[in-house]
Amino acid sequence: MSFSQAKVAFAMESELPWLALKDTPGFGGADIPGVYCKYFGRGDQGPWFYLVKHDAGVVVERHSHDGDVFHYILEGEWRICTSSKRFGPGFMQFEQKGLNYGPLLSERGSLFLAIYDHAPNFIPAKGAAALDAPERDYEPGEG
Questions:
Q1: With CB atoms 3.0 to 4.6 Å apart as the test, which of 24, 36, 71, 121 could cross-link to 93 if both were Cys?
Q2: What's this model's pTM, rounded to 2 decimal places?
Q3: What would the 3-class secondary structure string for the chain be?
Q4: How many domains does the chain fold into?
Q5: What angle do CA 43, 93, 117 make, to 5 degrees?
Q6: pLDDT, tens digit (0-9, with 9 covering 90-100), for 8-48
Q7: Residue 116, in any domain of the structure
Q8: Are 46 and 119 in contact (CB under 8 A)?
Q9: 120 in any annotated domain
């Protein structure tokens, strides 16, 4: 049986290289300096499971993906849109396919898990979607 036909995929995080986002399978060559990933999948076949690191000062512009995504922060923090709230270790976020979110600011840097239901394909927001930033979605009791 070839690896691509295997029913179980596994990897040791310590043995995986950090890849620039543009070199990470699944993101369509999107280039955001200061964003690095360890990809736990198999080539361009998935599963689409990543350990992601943002350097201090990284800004990820408003964007969406081709599928659903789950994020879980392990270290550091995020600030989303112009919300005054900072999200740190233990913060979990689920986003449905096509939702535009961000910009995401990582002033101190962050380390988080990102799990997608298929290849994420980073899609920058355009037009009105680039301007609409629902900060209320990230404030307690609203959204």
A1: 71
A2: 0.86
A3: CCHHHCCCCCCCHHHCCCEEHHHCCCCCCCCCCCEEEEECCCCCCCCEEEEEEECCCEEECCEECCCCEEEEEEEECEEECCCCCEECCCCEEEECCCCCECCEEECCCEEEEEEECCCCCCEECCCHHHHCCCHHHHCCCCC
A4: 1
A5: 30
A6: 677 889 999 999 999 999 999 999 999 999 999 888 888 89
A7: no
A8: yes
A9: no
Which residue range is the domain that position 30 belongs to?
16-70+88-99
Tokens linked to 31: 């280039």
What span, in angstroms and rounded, lies between the C-alpha atoms of 45 and 4? 8
Tokens of 110: 């962050």
Q: What are phi and psi of 71, to 5 degrees?
A: -120, 145
Place of tokens 């280039």: 31
The reply to whether 47 falls in a domain is yes
